[in-house]
Amino acid sequence: MNQWPDAETTLPADGTAGALVGRVWRPGLGPSVVAVREDGLHDVTAAFPTVRDLCETPDPAARLRAARGERIAGLDEVLANTPVDAQDPRRPWLLAPVDLQAVKAAGVTFVVSMLERVIEERVRGDAAGAAEARERIRRLVGDDIASLRPGSDEAAALKEILVAQGAWSQYLEVGIGPDAEIFTKAPVLAAVGSGADAGVHAGSRWNNPEPEVVLAVSSTGAVVGATLGNDVNLRDVEGRSALLLPQAKDNNASAALGPFLRLFEPDFRIDDVRRATVTLTVEGADGYRLDAESSMAAISRDPLDLVGQLLGPHHQYPDGAVLYLGTMFAPVEDRDAPGQGFTHHDGDLVAIATPKLGTLVNRIRPSDACVPWTFGIADLMRALVARGAL
């Protein structure tokens, strides 16, 4: 992965066999909903002005397959025109595959990442003390914590022991307690798509990608599809205080989604998400390379349990939501100085992949060097009215 991907490496392993929906920017028209088909991208905005509208139908996959639309370009053409350095503003480029849905995320849903959050808290965001804290925490909690069911009697008993030893943490609370951590990752329309730059705050000195599967959920709570996400995280900021989670998680271009939303149908269901293996590759301009692999089978809370905690009688989302399911990726090997662990360098190319969903690729830049987010909900409504889609 030394360059931006083409159609073959972006698409799922079965190509365009799935019901794939995406969004592109069309010069003169604005954001457009596209069906990804064998011969290219077809604009179906006339049938579905937003991806939200498609996801609210009783059978989104069938509706997408039946929708007719203008073929606007081949996928390779659009992918090649998406990176900002190579972008021709007269031609279409790829956007994140969601629009009006709330962008939410579940935290500490894997034991590995939960323990890393505890470590960040213990060292107050200072990477230099992480290795010693990591060993101390593991001695306290042991390896059996991976088999604990959150909210169970066994989890409650472990909590009592850790509290008595002065080792309890707010991250253990959401990791093995009854209530999941669900937070807002980004404002509506702020997510970036595959091929775009992803942002890391310039003031951060300890940060990492978080490769995740992301569910699309309708306003009724139905899970209608899935995509990939990078929940870019500032470990030093969150480690100073969990109350700084918004600053650690929500920065310009820090929510990446894509490449496309694959809608559920008989050949792709929630069980495919449960069985997914997600790979991560980070390649630096300095020749650095990191490869990692995560199994969704190791998640502590079932994806549908997380959706149930996201949306219900106490929380409504009339335009639906997308939910990052959390990551087990927590890099601990040193990249620079000994004892400093992993952190991003400007220009890192990050690829997140799984066979059923394809590959999400983003270049890491300082958040203030990424393309500013200037196109909001009012702009989208005006653009759709102008083209007669509303």
TrEMBL record:
In its UniProt entry, the species of origin is given as Streptomyces shenzhenensis
Q: Which sequence ranges form a coiled-coil region, renumbered to this chain?
A: none
Q: Do you know which InterPro entries this protein is assigned to? A: FAH, Fumarylacetoacetase-like_C, Fumarylacetoacetase_C_sf
| GO biological process, any | small molecule metabolic process
Give the family this protein belongs to, as stated in its UniProt record. Belongs to the FAH family.
Its recorded name reads Fumarylacetoacetate hydrolase
Query: Which SUPFAM superfamilies did the record assign?
Result: FAH
User: Which Gene3D superfamilies does the entry mention?
Assistant: Fumarylacetoacetase-like, C-terminal domain
**Fumarylacetoacetase-like C-terminal domain span:** 221-364
Keywords, in A-Z order: Hydrolase, Metal-binding
Phylogenetic lineage: Bacteria, Bacillati, Actinomycetota, Actinomycetes, Kitasatosporales
Q: Name one GO molecular function term.
A: hydrolase activity
